[in-house]
Design a protein that fits this description.
Layout lengths: L6 H4 L3 H8 L3 E4 L14 E12 L26 E6 L3 E7 L7 E12 L1 H13 L34 H7 L18 E4 L10 E4 L17 E4 L12
Antiparallel strand pairs: 1-2, 1-6, 2-5, 2-8, 3-4, 4-5, 7-8
The structure holds a DNA duplex (13 and 13 nucleotides).
Length: 239
DNA sequence: GCAAAGATTTGCT
DNA sequence: GCAAATCTTTGCC
């Protein structure tokens, strides 16, 4: 078992928390209460891309509407999962940051798979073959054919979670995990410190993706953080 | 009560 | 490069 991720690192200003979260591990244990039949292996990946959403004034953040039923978790204590559905089909996983009553979170945009590659492939196949609404229903979907993604070619291992919707699909994250404490050592979905503090990797910052509606300065602030050189960052596969 | 848009991904032209 | 898929949430009447 790895070391649970310290909540203190997430209770700080979100841009600082982002640099701590980059490189951390996301761990997903089997969860028989809600998993599809056949899910038995642990999934582990290294977070290589996150985006910061900070405060009610951030016109790109869901918190811009003030506290609502959807975003209530963002207003809660740090270290919990904020999960929502975008475009009616994809789930997105966020890690809440900053002290309670200050709505902020980090969107997990990409993960480098470490363990449980086959389980991730199977989960992505399931996510594609059923509507998002059924994701929360009882675990009755049939086990998919191992190794097939539904496309002509199997997805390369390093691209399995290379995007926010793909992270949720590969790790079987849906709204049933909204509010879950990701710093708890016994949570089925949780954060862990990387075994070796990998300070060798450089971090890059860029503007956030897919928030053109927010206008300036929000479309330009460099609040997207990526591990330089990772083959698993979102978007077209890097050469 | 209804219309519109969205922190995306995929496949086809 | 563009559009479709899909459904919840927000905003306005």
């Amino acid at each position: 078992m790895g070391r649970p991720f310290p909540r203190d690192l997430l209770a700080r200003p979100t841009l600082d928390a982002a640099r701590s979260l980059l490189g951390a591990w996301l761990v997903r244990d089997p969860d028989p209460r809600r998993d599809a039949p056949g899910v038995s292996g642990r999934r582990v990946g290294r977070i290589v891309e996150v985006e910061a959403y900070i405060g009610e004034g951030d016109r790109a953040s869901h918190a811009r509407f003030g506290r609502t039923r959807r975003n209530a978790v963002m207003f809660g204590p740090p270290g919990h999962a904020y999960v929502y559905l975008v475009y009616g089909m994809h789930h997105c996983l966020n890690v809440v940051t900053e002290p309670a009553d200050r709505p902020a979170a980090l969107l997990v945009r990409a993960i480098e798979p470490i363990l449980g590659i086959d389980e991730m492939r199977a989960a992505r196949a399931r996510a594609r073959s059923r509507p998002a609404r059924a994701a929360q229903a009882a675990p009755t979907s049939p086990a998919p054919v191992a190794g097939l993604s539904g496309s002509r070619h199997p997805v390369a291992a390093h691209r399995l979670a290379a995007g926010p919707g793909l992270v949720a699909a590969a790790f079987d994250v849906d709204r049933s995990y909204n509010g879950l404490d990701l710093c708890a050592a016994d949570a089925p979905l949780r954060l862990e410190l990387a075994p070796d503090d990998d300070a060798s990797t450089d971090m890059l910052t860029t503007p956030r993706i897919g928030i053109g509606y927010a206008g300036e300065p929000w479309v330009s602030v460099p609040w997207r953080f990526v591990m330089a050189g990772s083959p698993s960052i979102s978007g077209p596969a890097p050469r």
